[in-house]
């Protein structure tokens, strides 16, 4: 039996095909691992908030190593790359590249990292679904719609709670986070439509982003603070930014999108604020109130329905 479930229309484009059976389960696992790494990345950013490293430093770590390591995969896929629509490649490069990274970093100057975990991965499933339904005329099933509504309720609850006692400048950071979330949604959709191998797509993203960063450095727009931090801190940031976020999630996220589709993968990503909050308890000694737990539960329930886990388990049970 084929691992790909065809849509009823024989002429349906490849990006509407999703995996089934074991491939679908592997896709869920890849999406969950990606979400765990994202949550750990947010906590590590908060722990290193007092670092002398600049946004340019972190961005360079994020993109340069994947660019070098994955260039052979990019080169092997050059013929496939030429067949991909240019607007799709631009969406991949800008959606998860330098604009996304700098929007996320700028937002942290006004709002706490907890807002980044809430708004960037939490809201981009809504953007992904909106783009998929409006632009690509994707169908929206009732379970997925209800799941997205639950995610929205949970996000709004968490956002109102976290903003209750903060100053008025927080809204600036929140808007920047939401903008970054939209960019990431564009990346997710374009990556799905392009159908590139995950490692080749990550190599493309890293190569173009590294070139942009080097141009910014050469023109004096950005500066570096790497010489001001310890070797241990530098090694830790390289591990998180380059190995985990840059290389590993570059593959796992791409694999999840190819197996599950953009919308289901985006819904799984909404678990990031939940996992980040749980990690913050032992690592940052933060506590979670009952109201926050209420919001997190809504997000969890929403992810279960919007990601298609229930539907997949139901089919397996009736086989």
Automatic annotation (TrEMBL):
GO terms for cellular component: plasma membrane
Subcellular location(s) per record: Cell membrane
UniProt-listed InterPro entries: Diverse_Substrate_Transporter (IPR051258), EamA_dom (IPR000620), EmrE-like (IPR037185)
PANTHER family membership: EAMA DOMAIN-CONTAINING PROTEIN, OS03G0707200 PROTEIN-RELATED
Pfam families: EamA
Bilayer topology term: Multi-pass membrane protein
Transmembrane feature ranges: 26-44, 56-75, 87-110, 116-136, 145-164, 176-194, 201-222, 234-253, 265-284, 290-310
Domain EamA: 26-159, 172-307
Name by which UniProt lists this protein: EamA domain-containing protein
Keyword field: Cell membrane, Membrane, Transmembrane, Transmembrane helix
């Amino acid at each position: 039996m084929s691992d790909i479930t065809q849509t009823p229309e024989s002429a349906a484009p490849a990006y509407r095909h999703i995996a089934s059976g074991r491939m679908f389960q592997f896709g869920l696992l890849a999406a969950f691992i990606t979400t765990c790494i994202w949550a750990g990345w947010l906590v590590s950013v908060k722990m290193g908030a007092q670092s002398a490293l600049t946004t340019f430093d972190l961005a360079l770590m994020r993109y340069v190593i994947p660019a070098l390591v994955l260039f052979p995969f990019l080169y092997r896929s050059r013929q496939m790359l030429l067949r991909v629509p240019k607007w799709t490649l631009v969406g991949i490069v800008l959606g998860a590249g330098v604009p996304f990274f700098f929007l996320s970093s700028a937002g942290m100057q006004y709002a706490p990292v907890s807002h980044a975990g809430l708004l960037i991965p939490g809201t981009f499933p809504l953007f992904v679904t909106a783009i998929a339904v409006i632009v690509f005329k994707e169908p929206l099933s009732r379970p997925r719609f209800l799941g997205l509504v639950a995610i929205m309720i949970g996000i709004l609850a968490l956002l109102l709670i976290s903003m209750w006692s903060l100053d008025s400048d927080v809204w600036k950071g929140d808007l920047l986070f939401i903008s970054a979330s939209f960019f990431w949604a564009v990346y997710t959709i374009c990556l799905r439509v392009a159908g590139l191998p995950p490692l080749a797509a990550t190599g493309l993203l890293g190569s173009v982003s590294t070139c942009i960063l080097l141009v910014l450095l050469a023109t004096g727009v950005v500066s570096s603070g790497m010489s001001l931090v310890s070797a241990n801190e530098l090694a830790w940031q390289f591990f998180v930014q380059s190995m985990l976020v840059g290389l590993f999630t570059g593959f796992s996220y791409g694999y999840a999108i190819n197996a599950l589709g953009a919308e289901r993968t985006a819904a799984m990503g909404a678990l990031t604020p939940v996992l980040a909050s749980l990690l913050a308890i032992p690592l940052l000694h933060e506590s979670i109130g009952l109201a926050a737990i209420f919001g997190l539960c809504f997000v969890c329930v929403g992810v279960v329905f919007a990601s298609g886990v229930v539907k997949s388990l139901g089919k397996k049970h009736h086989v």
